[in-house]
Design a protein that fits this description.
2 domains; Alpha-Beta Plaits; 32% helix; 10 helices; 5-stranded antiparallel β-sheet; Rossmann fold; 340 residues; 6-stranded mixed β-sheet
Length: 340
């Protein structure tokens, strides 16, 4: 495989199940990248993973993973891939360590190398104390952790993880993502679906699925800009001069919009293209009026859950679907050209 080629390259792929499936999937994932796929339940995330791992063939389009067609992977190519499915598929009557040993043996790991690797993975997923517990005796979250350990046992170059953090407590989720970033930094590529929309912020590139279609692929910051029409600066001034500050800023070429909030006097939310460039300009403009004191000014990053809702709402509007009734703006009053 050409080292400069995308490790995942999909062009116009369909997987059809009656009226369901995925349609016209097109994406490229470079080596050494964490690609996160987010979307509502049933939007096609798991189907996409199964397409890329060769479980489902495309009805049309082209799919290349590691330079090969997934449905015709050789054994050598499959050895470079780790796959954590959404459901627990290991042996319920084997213990945790027996399951790990079995999977390691499938990849031909020698005894001494295997022993070190398994101890490391047990520590990573915090199953040391449960090593002798049967698979069927594990909680759902512990089964997820065992599945992840088995997917990583042979140190694969490409890892597919379908909702790896589902049912995992927040502290362990953070540990998993720390390890995912370490894998990325060592040249591994990860394709991760997640039900926790906020985890998109940990990815290098994010795909947003809706009703079987990939509606956006961008960086986390890029998706925020798409959702908000730019970046946001939260500006706090003396409440007595809130309207005057808004009237000064609104005509400025670097300002796209301004929202005020009656419940938080003095707070303005200023929409701009680039917050880093707009901040000094805001200070310069308001500096013309010494009585307008700036109490705080900083870029505001809304929670990714809000960004996701806004992207879903925009897609719904474009497709003439029912709108989602959870607007993103924190502030409830827009400043007009006459300051009202």
């Amino acid at each position: 495989m050409d080292a400069t080629a995308p490790i995942i390259d999909v062009r116009g792929a369909d997987v059809v199940f009656g009226d369901a499936g995925i349609h016209d999937l097109t994406l490229q994932v470079e080596r050494g990248t964490i690609f996160g796929m987010i979307g509502p339940s049933g939007s096609g995330k798991t189907t996409s993973v199964r397409l890329l791992t060769g479980i489902y063939p495309p009805a049309k389009g082209e799919v290349r993973v590691l330079g090969r067609t997934p449905s015709r992977f050789s054994a050598r190519t499959r050895e470079k891939i780790g796959y954590m499915p959404q459901l627990f598929t290991l042996y319920p009557n084997l213990t945790v360590i027996e399951n790990l040993n079995f999977v390691a043996s499938l990849y031909g790991l020698g005894y001494f190398r295997r022993r070190r690797r398994l101890e490391y993975l047990l520590e990573l997923v915090e199953l040391q104390d449960a090593r002798n517990r049967l698979g069927r005796q594990l909680s759902g979250g512990m089964q997820r952790r065992l599945s992840l350990a088995c997917a990583l046992v042979h140190n694969p170059a490409l890892i597919f993880a379908d909702e790896p953090t589902a049912g995992i407590d927040p502290v362990l989720r953070a540990k998993f993502w720390e390890h995912f970033r370490e894998l990325r930094d060592h040249g591994r590529t990860l394709f991760i679906t997640t039900q926790y929309v906020g985890e998109a912020a940990y990815c290098d590139l994010v795909g947003v699925m809706r009703e079987g279609q990939l509606i956006h692929v961008d960086t986390p910051d890029g998706l925020r800009k798409r959702a908000l029409g730019g970046e946001i600066i939260r500006l706090v001034v003396d409440p007595r001069y809130e309207l005057a500050a808004a009237e000064l800023l609104f005509p400025q070429p670097f300002v796209n919009d301004i929202h005020r909030d009656r419940s938080q006097p003095g707070l303005l939310q200023v929409y701009v293209n680039e917050a880093s460039e707009a901040l000094p300009a805001i200070f310069a403009v308001l500096g013309q009026r010494p009585e307008i004191t700036i109490q705080a000014a900083e870029e505001y990053l809304p929670p990714f859950d809000d960004v996701f809702v806004e992207l879903m709402e925009q897609a719904g509007t474009q497709q003439s679907d029912a709108r989602i009734t959870a607007p993103i703006p924190v502030l409830d009053e827009r400043v007009t050209s006459d300051g009202r």
